[in-house]
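In response to the reviewer comment on reproducibility (Comment 2.3), we provide here a single inverse folding case reported in full, input and output, so that an independent group could reproduce the run without further information from us. The structure tokens appear first.
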């Protein structure tokens, strides 16, 4: 069954129950953006715990962190939890993955032998606006410069990446440009790269004191450059094909 995002938002409980019988494909402007599916026969308990308070696609209704954790642990899907909303991470397209690969390759070579480690998704990062406001994100690429100091007993990283990269897609554009920019800026990330395959541009933000200190847009035939790492550069035309 296919249903548009507005209809899903207005009747989430109804479609959550229908998902026990068949997959619900969510569309926006005619484009498929996500899928609502049963959690391996455990949908009944998930409905009782989450119901209409936790839309999977971030349309304004809220879920508690405990509700998110139950969904996260009971599913093989990938999710993010930002400011009380749950987002299902759809499978990326080819242009997105090529861009991620090119950027990660450049980062990997640059940081060899340094104290900083580039890591590519999927890898959960926990960010807190306050001790009680927990967010879980999976950036496309992150550069971590305090990895060994912030690994817990289960080998999960509990610090804040120094640099984060997100590659835009139609389904994540608003989240990456607005919600994640604000989250990263507020939680101590120092530099944020946004790569846009549609217009073949890279925006690099430098954050300081929970604000945007500087930003630069790099276009085709230009070289994107880090503010924090002087020799970290990549030709924009290499990123997009």
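Designed residues, in position order:
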């Amino acid at each position: 069954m296919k249903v548009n995002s507005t209809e899903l938002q207005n009747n989430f409980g109804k479609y959550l129950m229908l998902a026990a019988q068949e997959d619900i494909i969510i569309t926006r402007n005619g484009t498929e953006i996500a899928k609502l599916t049963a959690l391996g026969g455990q949908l009944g308990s998930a409905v009782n715990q989450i119901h209409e308070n936790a839309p999977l696609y971030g349309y304004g209704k809220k879920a508690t962190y405990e509700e998110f954790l139950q969904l996260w642990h009971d599913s093989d899907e990938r999710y993010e939890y930002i400011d009380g909303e749950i987002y299902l991470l759809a499978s990326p397209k080819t242009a997105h993955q090529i861009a991620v690969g090119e950027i990660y390759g450049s980062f990997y070579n640059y940081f060899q032998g340094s104290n900083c480690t580039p890591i590519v998704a999927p890898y959960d990062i926990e960010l807190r606006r306050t001790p009680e406001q927990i967010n879980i994100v999976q950036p496309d690429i992150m550069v971590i410069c305090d990895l060994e100091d912030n690994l817990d007993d289960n080998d999960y990283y509990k610090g804040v990446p120094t640099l984060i990269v997100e590659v835009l897609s139609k389904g994540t554009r608003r989240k990456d440009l607005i919600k994640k920019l604000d989250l990263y800026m507020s939680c101590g990330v120092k530099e944020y790269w946004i790569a846009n395959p549609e217009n073949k541009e890279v925006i690099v933000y430098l954050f300081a004191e929970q604000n945007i200190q500087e930003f630069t847009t790099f276009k085709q035939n230009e070289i994107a450059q880090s503010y924090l790492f002087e020799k970290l550069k990549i030709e924009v035309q290499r990123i997009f094909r």
